[in-house]
Amino acid sequence: MSCHVPKTDSKKIRAKDTINIALAGNPNVGKSVIFNQLTGLSQTIGNWPGKTVEKMEGHLDFLGYHFNIVDLPGIYSLSTYTLEEIVSREYVVSENVDIIINVIDATNLERNLFFTFQLLELKVPMIIAMNQMDILRKRNIDLDFKVLMTIFKLPILPVVAVHGTGVHQLLEKAIEIIEQNKFNSDSKKSNYKFPELSHITSFGKEVETQVDILYKKLIQDPIVNNGVQYPARFLAIKLLEKDEEILKYLNSNSQFKEIIKYANDYCEQLEDYHGEDIHTIISSEIYRNINTVVKKVVKTKTKENRKKFSLTDKLDHLTTHSLFGYVILALVLFGIYLFTFTIGDFLGGLIDGFFSMLSEQVYSIFNENNILLNIFWDGALGGLFGAISGVLVYVIPFFFVLEILQDSGYLPRAAFLMDRIMHSIGV
C-alpha cells in the first residue's frame, strides 16, 4: 500500500524550498520500504562518488516543499570498517543533509539503538521512526513514546512502513523542524540547537573524563571550530577508538600530534586496566545506557510477555559474553558447516542419481559411440549437472541458514565478537 501525499492548493504553495533527508538505520529495518512509499517511481540509482557502493536517491513534492531523500546503506555503526559505513558517515555530516530520519525496528530496540546513540553524537537534526509497531503490538508490548521523547528530546513517531502508516507524518515533522528553526537555503543549520543529551550519552567516569579532556583540547583549535565537519566530542570519541579516517585527517596537521599521542597513551592504559580493547569498553558503556532507556520505555501487558522480554535480554547477554559468546559462536559455525554439507550432500546425491538414470535411458536409445551425443551429453550437460551437484547444492542451504541468522539478530552479535578478536591482533 503506497503512502498517499495529501493534495494542497497550488495557490497556497509558496516557491518550493528544498529539504534534504537522509534515511539511516540498520539493515532490514524498513528504510527502503519507507523510501519507496515516499518517492514511488521518482528514484535514481547510481554509485557514491569514487565508491562502488550503490546510492539510492528519490524526490517528491509535499506541502510546498521539494524533498530530496537518500536511502543510506544499512549499517550497524559509524565506524569506518566498510565502504558503506564510510559513505554513510561522510554524507550525514555533509552540508547536503538537513535532517536524518533514523529508522528503527521497534521489535529489536536494543540492537537498533546502538546505531542511534552514535548518530546522536553527530548532532544533526534528527527524527526517529519507530517501524514495525504492528508486530510489537501483536506481541502485547508497548513503547511509552512520551517517556521516549522526554529522554531523547527528539521527535519520535510510530510507523508501519509496509502499510504506509505514519510515513507522511515524518515529512510533516521535518517541515515543522525546518519552519520552527527558521532554516534558510544559505545556512540551514545555523539556528538549530541540538538538545543536550549527556544524561543518556555519557560514558562511565573513566572514559567520560578523558573524552571531556580531549573535547576541551579540540575546541581550542580553530581548525576544529571552522574546518572540520565532525563535532569535537565525536572527534574525541573516535580518537580514543583510533578511528583510521579521523587519525588520517588529524595526522596531516602537526598541531594535533600532541592530542593524538595523549589519546593513544590513555587508550592503552584503559585497555590494560580492563583487559579489553577500547571498542569493547565504549560499546559496553553505550549498551549500559541503552539498557537504562529500554527498561523505562518498554511496557509488557502480560506476565507471559515479561518472561519473553526477560529471555531476550538473557540471550543477548549470553551471545555477547566474553567467554560463552565464543563457545556459542563456534557451535553456530559448526552447525552452519554441518547443515550446509549434510543438505548439500543429500541434494548432490539426488542430482547425481537423476543424471545417471537419465544417461542410461539416453544411451539405451541412442548409439553410445555417437560423438556428438558424447560431446553434448557428457560434456555440456554433464558439466552443468556437475556444477549444480558440486557447488549450487551447498550454496542454497548456506544462504538459507545465513538468512535465518540474519533475521534472528544473531549476526550483529557474532560481528561484535569477531570485532574483539580482530582488534586484539591489530586488524
Low-confidence stretches: 1-15
With strands numbered from the N-terminus, the spatial order across the biggest sheet is: 2-3-4-1-5-6-8
Query: How many structural domains?
Result: 3
Number of helices, where a helix is a run of at least 4 consecutive DSSP H or I residues: 17
User: Residue-averaged pLDDT, rounded?
Assistant: 80
Structural class: alpha/beta
Q: What's the CATH H-level superfamily name of the largest domain?
A: P-loop containing nucleotide triphosphate hydrolases
SSE string, helices as H and strands as E: EHEEEHEHEHEHEHHHHHHHHEHHHH
Number of strands: 9
Radius of gyration: 26 Å
Question: Any overview of this molecule?
Answer:
By secondary structure, the protein is of the alpha/beta class. Helices cover 59% and strands 12% of the residues. A 7-stranded mixed beta sheet has the order 2-3-4-1-5-6-8, sandwiched between helices. Strand 5, helix 3 and strand 6 form a beta-alpha-beta unit. The longest helix has 42 residues. The chain is globular and about 85 Å long. The chain starts with 16 loop residues before the first strand and ends with a helix. The N terminus is likely disordered.
